[in-house]
Write a structure and sequence with these properties.
- The structure holds three protein chains of three kinds.
- Chain A is of the alpha+beta class.
- The longest helix of chain A has 16 residues.
- By secondary structure, chain B is of the alpha+beta class.
- Chain B folds into three domains: 81 residues, Phosphorylase Kinase, domain 1; 34 residues, no CATH class; 50 residues, no CATH class.
- A three-stranded antiparallel β-sheet of chain B has the order 1-2-3. In chain B, strands 6-7-8 form a three-stranded mixed β-sheet. In chain B, strands 4-5 form a two-stranded antiparallel ribbon.
- In chain B, α6 links the parallel β7 and β8.
- The longest helix of chain B is centred in the last third of the chain and has 19 residues.
- The radius of gyration of chain B is 24 Å and the shape is extended.
- The two termini of chain B are 35 Å apart.
- By secondary structure, chain C is α+β, with helices and mostly antiparallel strands.
- Chain C has one domain: Alpha-Beta Plaits.
- Helix content of chain C is 33%, strand content 19%.
- In chain C, the strands form four sheets. In chain C, strands 8-1-10-9 form a four-stranded mixed β-sheet.
- Classes of the chains: A alpha+beta, B alpha+beta, C alpha+beta.
- Chains A and B meet through α8, α11, β9, β10 and β11 of A and β1, β2, α4, β4 and α5 of B.
């Protein structure tokens, strides 16, 4: 139960956190040495950086994009950043940040967020008290933070606040993404995303000329400092895992077999292409966009443009059944051929999942798959073998690509152990398992399907994800329970818990420290670097080893929408932006026409947001098909305040209609004291909220909230803005 | 099957409990033995398998009790340091993932323009999917673009995977990239 | 022997309802879907197939601030249980742990226990047998007495992730409850231990954040006088006389008394509700 609750208008996280940054700076509550030594606050930014009326320098309105080279920092002759560790230089990141957030004073902030001033000040005071050594504070967030047109910058703002307070790399610190799916961590690590390869390697793009060759790609991608200097070893080892003996030094280790895209292929763009008829086939592995996708009515229409669709699921979902009358479709007019393959549940098969803390835990098989259902691993293996068989005797470019894929996990039954070993990696000449990614090579003598996981299976018979020794090894690290990538480390960047000399900032929050007697680092966690390096060795006072400069980015000149988080109103907002004349994030991609109708406050004056309830999961297929969970939350509802209910003549339990520019949904009104109108700029703004779990299939059914949400995404990730849009409500 | 070493189970030392159980509880606990003592308890003589919850990303441990080819009970794994035997409502009820009558047990096919599903066998389904994949790939395959070898198809999409095991995610990425797919997405954004 | 009780600290509960599902899962109870309740609450109260229900209460405290209160509600397992007293078939008894259990073989579904329970936590359900004949049974939480027999804690307690539910030795639990009330006084000035003595104390004690009436609980529940008369006087006499008619007459007397009990309870709530 919360000690303090401070509500805010949906879509105003940057003012909320920006105000806290300002509060910490104004009241000198920051951890100054940490900021000076472990962040880029001391770097001097070039004079070409400017910020005026909501725009950073280098904006191209036609392209809706910035020239980021204007945001670079000054460098010395050898290419290193110019620093001022006193943080006094007027163009130091620190001073620019101070200036930027001086505009986020308490009164301005609370007039935008609608938070009561005394509540807001209490939050500032409580949280900023963790800037002292010996204290730490954590920020936990989920899609409520990321699903905005400024989602990336919301999280950036958290990171900046935590860095100011010296809260990264310490127990009880950090910014923690609360992952909503059991393996969304793993599926991200394993790169089921258009722009990455396993282990956060970049997918080579066709738009970058250097990517024509492997050598060019490696040169372009590999920085001159930091741990990523090892990148070529990871890329070549991945290519060896994927193409096996077909990856040789002569053919650039099969680099040319990798597909190279030329644009943003993420969810909204994918459905936009499908809506325009540009796609022919689709595989849906346990996903239900007709409920879970933004502007879901359009995503359902888009599916009808496919020639064929394969859905792999435990249930008949709204998506696999999009052609049915119940979905509002006319089956005779839909030509899509649909293949629905029954998958088994997580405990009817074996394999590992990675949680939000990167713990890779093994799941054993408790029972044989129900009926004819199969593990997804079996389905993928059988399908790929069948596709490979069709191409076996062909030599077209399309055939060559498929034939090159090394796929040997068993013919009749897939052997998961072989998959595990390939992920970890082995010596391609001896077959000996690799003990950790430090041993990977770029000459083709090692393979590793995902370098960050390399080390979880260091020797025969030792899959460390299967470990069940639950003795607390100190600070609740449980180092012998399962395995955490990288190298079983439980706190990332734990070097930052100690001062530059290797001494913990405080006794209360000590994690690792340099032991002069043993001449090595020791403590409760696996150090984030070579343990025998002295704190004074060149480069080993830099805790943020994955960043080229070795320090954390208070300033991020690589993001698409600016080096500092700045407030812009959501795509649909009830007020003009009080911070500048830029209404919406200037760097977001706009989708026009029928695919994304935009609503305005004249027709849709109420702010709406969507969320999940504890009893249902995602699009509801896994929980609305279970009786016990269906009975707990059986109906689609909309939470509205007593004040709004009164204005609209709505009684509790009435059926109501919620409309947006995209569509309408019918639901029960849940009139509640827990929703209150916000006072924004002195005016009353109503906000409503609703779960997005419902659809017409399953035991508990109801209208789909995402029929209301827009096809608009974040400037960096294109994550849809589900969490703030405009609507209206009326009695049904 | 994993060798269980359950030592944190919340055994009460009830003075009224049966002597045999008490002795076990005090001597250190062997779950299978203890459950076997009871004739009535529904988890007596059940097989117990540890798993990790399939819902959110916290990674709670769950024990699945199976008997007579069905799941008779699911409960928190007391040995897992993440949840120490505790669960939310979703984790508690994963038993019904197996027992729900709504589960699909056979491959289903919907022909173009049809208003119903037809049952088909696995081989036919996978053979046909493989054929469709090949047809689409072959006619949409792009080998080069601006002088760069791109080896891709932009007419096939793959979505989902955030609930798959790591090993499955790995094979899915390898398979889709091996087919030249660029439209590759899972639920990280939605 | 040592007395064990269930401890419910509502100030730690986050309303996740794992306790509701754990109960159904252990006891193999079917789903029992209800109409929309106008709040997050799924069932208005416990039923024959839903032995514990999470209550969700939006309460404005003395300062006008909103408190969102939760309560895991289930059978209290009274030390002096009205249901046990009124059961004409002796189907209700105390287990060796002090839990109050209904012997389903003996229960004839007369409903006296349902009507006399001061907490309204027993429910009747109609079943149909193989021949299509209807029969009724009383149902309620058993405190997982079958698990207690094996040294396992009740299913709801085992799953509770916030530490809101515990099961343990009575004096330790009461001490814990009193300590918790002290800790919560700043946040909840009306916080109190609920362990009503009018029913001899219960085998479920609560740390409540607010007065019992806020949760719809009687401030001072008692075993109805009629129930005492029934169990301690009328029933033995009835049995001696073996007169069905007499039993029915006394039964009616008990039933009539319930109406006044209900009325009294409602007034009680009205007075104390803030």
């Amino acid at each position: 139960m919360a000690d303090h609750y401070a509500p805010l208008r949906s879509g105003t996280d940057i003012p909320f956190i920006g105000g806290m940054i300002n509060y910490a700076l104004e009241n000198n509550l920051i951890h100054k040495e940490y900021v000076a030594k472990y962040t880029n606050a001391s770097f001097i930014v070039k004079e070409s950086y400017k910020f005026e009326d909501g725009l950073f320098s280098g904006y191209d309105e036609a392209k809706r994009a910035y020239d980021k080279t204007l945001w670079a920092w000054e460098t010395t002759e050898d290419g290193k950043p110019v620093k001022d560790e006193t943080l006094e230089h007027p163009r130091s990141v620190f001073q620019l940040m101070k200036k930027h957030y001086s505009r986020y004073d308490v009164d301005t902030v609370t007039s935008v967020t609608g938070t009561a001033k005394e509540d807001y000040l209490k939050v500032c005071e409580m949280f900023c008290s963790t800037g002292k050594a010996g204290k730490s504070g954590t920020i936990m967030y989920a899609m409520g933070a990321t699903q905005h047109t400024v989602g990336t910058q919301n999280v950036r703002a958290y990171a900046m606040l935590q860095l100011l307070l010296g809260n990264i790399g310490l127990p009880g610190g950090g910014i923690n993404a609360m992952r909503g799916e059991s393996n969304v961590q793993g599926s991200t690590d394993f790169a089921l995303l258009y722009d990455t390869l396993p282990g956060y390697l970049n997918m080579p793009k066709a738009t970058v000329p250097e990517n024509a060759t492997l050598a060019g790609h490696l040169a372009k991608e590999t920085p001159k400092s930091g741990y990523w200097t090892n990148r070529p070893k990871f890329i070549v080892s991945l290519l060896k895992a994927w193409y096996g003996p077909n990856a040789t030094a002569e053919n650039e280790f099969g680099y040319q077999f990798l597909p190279k895209g030329n644009k943003n292929y993420s969810h909204i763009n994918l459905f936009n292409a499908m809506y325009k008829g540009e796609l022919e086939g689709a595989f849906l592995f346990g996903t239900n966009p007709v409920v879970g996708g933004p502007n879901a009515g359009k995503e359902k229409e888009a599916l009808a443009n496919l020639k064929w669709m394969v859905a792999v699921d435990l249930w008949e979902t709204e998506s696999s059944a999009f052609w049915q009358k119940g979905a509002g479709s006319d089956p005779s007019k839909i030509k899509t051929e649909v293949f629905l393959l029954p998958a088994c549940s997580s405990y009817e098969k074996e394999g590992s999942v990675s949680n939000s803390s990167r713990w890779m835990q093994y799941r054993w098989q408790a029972i044989k798959p129900l009926g004819e259902s199969k593990a997804d691993l079996e389905i993928m293996n059988e399908l790929m073998l069948k596709i490979k068989a069709l191409y076996k005797n062909e030599s077209t470019p399309a055939a060559k690509q498929v034939n090159a894929v090394y796929w040997n996990y068993g013919e009749k039954e897939v052997d998961i152990d072989l998959v595990c070993k390939e992920i970890n990696g082995y010596d391609t000449t001896t077959g000996k398992l690799i003990n950790g990614f430090g041993s990977l090579k770029d000459d083709g003598t090692t393979c590793s399907g995902n370098w960050i996981y390399c080390g979880f299976y260091p020797e025969e018979g030792k899959n460390l994800a299967q470990r069940r020794d639950n003795k607390d090894t100190g600070l609740s690290m449980y180092l012998n329970w399962s395995y955490a990538w990288p190298m079983n480390r439980r706190i990332l960047y734990n070097r930052a818990s100690a001062d530059p000399s290797g001494k913990p900032w405080s006794k209360e929050k000590q994690v690792i420290w340099y032991d002069e007697l043993q001449q090595k680092w020791t403590g409760y966690d696996v150090p984030d670097f070579v343990a025998t390096k002295k704190p004074t060795d060149p480069g080993f006072s830099d805790p943020f080893i994955m960043i080229a400069d070795g320090v954390a980015g208070m300033y991020a000149p690589t993001l698409n929408d600016g080096p500092f988080p700045e407030h812009y109103e959501p795509y649909e907002s009830p007020i003009p932006n009080p911070f500048s004349s830029q209404e919406i994030n200037p760097a977001i991609q706009l989708f026009d026409g029928d695919f994304n109708k935009r609503g305005f406050k004249a027709d849709y004056p109420i702010v709406a947001t969507t969320y999940r309830v504890s009893e249902h999961w995602q699009s509801g297929t896994m929980t609305r098909n279970q009786e016990w969970l269906s009975e707990l939350v059986p109906y689609m509802f909309v939470e509205i305040s007593e004040e709004l209910a009164k204005e609209k003549g709505i009684n509790n339990k009435d059926e109501i209609i919620v409309t947006s520019a995209r569509g309408e949904v019918k639901a029960y009104a849940m009139v509640t004291k827990r929703f209150k109108p916000h006072t924004v700029n002195g005016k009353k703004i109503h906000q409503i909220g609703m779960p997005w779990h419902f659809g017409y299939k399953g035991i508990a059914t109801g209208d789909t909230a995402n029929r209301l949400t827009p096809h608009i995404g974040d400037a960096n990730t294109t994550i849809p803005e589900y969490k703030a849009f405009l609507c209206d409500v009326r009695r049904a | 099957m994993v060798e269980l070493n359950l030592n944190r189970r919340q055994f009460l030392k009830l003075s009224g409990a049966t002597a045999v159980t008490l002795a076990v509880a005090e001597l250190g606990f062997n779950e299978k033995k203890a459950y076997a003592q009871s004739k009535e308890l529904k988890i007596a003589k059940a097989d117990v398998t540890p798993t990790i919850c399939c819902f959110c990303g916290v990674g709670c441990g769950i024990l699945v009790h199976t008997k007579d080819n069905t799941v008779v009970y699911t409960e928190g794994d007391p040995d897992n340091p993440i949840n120490e035997g505790k669960l939310c409502s979703k984790g508690t009820t994963i038993r019904q993932l197996y027992t729900s009558e709504k589960r699909l047990t056979k491959p289903l096919y919907r022909a173009p323009g049809s208003d119903k599903w037809e049952e088909k066998d696995w081989d036919w389904m996978l053979d046909t999917i493989a054929k469709r994949t090949k047809e689409t790939r072959d006619k949409s395959f792009i080998e080069t673009e601006n002088g760069i070898t791109v080896n891709k198809t932009e007419k096939i999409a793959s979505l989902g995977g955030a609930a798959l095991d790591n090993e499955e995610c790995y094979l899915l990425a390898k398979m889709m990239r091996g087919l030249g797919v660029t439209y590759l997405e899972h639920q990280a954004r939605i | 022997m040592t007395k064990y009780i269930k401890y419910v600290d509502v100030t730690k509960c986050d309303g996740c309802r794992a306790c509701m599902v754990a109960c159904k899962n252990w006891n193999d109870l079917p789903a029992d879907p209800q109409d929309f309740q106008g709040s997050v609450q799924s069932h208005p109260k416990v039923s024959a197939d839903t032995w514990n229900v999470m209550q969700y209460i939006e309460h404005e405290n003395g300062k006008g601030d909103l408190e969102y209160l939760f309560r895991h509600s289930a059978c209290f397992h009274c030390t002096d249980a009205a249901c046990e007293k009124v059961c004409p078939e002796n189907a209700i008894s105390y287990s060796k742990y002090g839990t109050v259990v209904i012997d389903q073989d003996k229960c004839v579904g007369c409903g006296y226990c349902v009507q006399n329970c001061p907490f309204e936590v027993i429910s009747l359900k109609e079943y149909v047998d193989k021949n299509g004949d209807k029969y009724r049974k009383s149902q309620k939480c058993t405190m997982c007495t079958d698990r207690l027999e094996e040294g396992l804690q009740p299913a709801c307690v085992t799953t509770c992730h916030t530490g809101s539910l515990e099961f343990g030795e009575e004096s330790a639990m009461i001490k814990k409850a009193e300590q918790r009330v002290k800790e919560m006084k700043d946040r909840f000035p009306n916080a109190q231990v609920y362990n009503p003595q009018g029913v001899g104390g219960t085998h479920t004690i609560y740390v409540l954040a607010e007065k019992p009436s806020v949760y719809g609980l009687p401030e001072n529940p008692k075993v109805p006088t009629s129930a005492v008369i029934w169990k301690d006087y009328a029933q033995p006499i009835g049995k001696m006389m073996i007169g069905a008619t007499t039993m029915a007459v006394v039964g009616a007397f008990v039933t009539n008394n319930i109406i006044s009990k209900r009325k009294a309870l409602k007034e009680d709530r009205g007075e104390d509700h803030e």
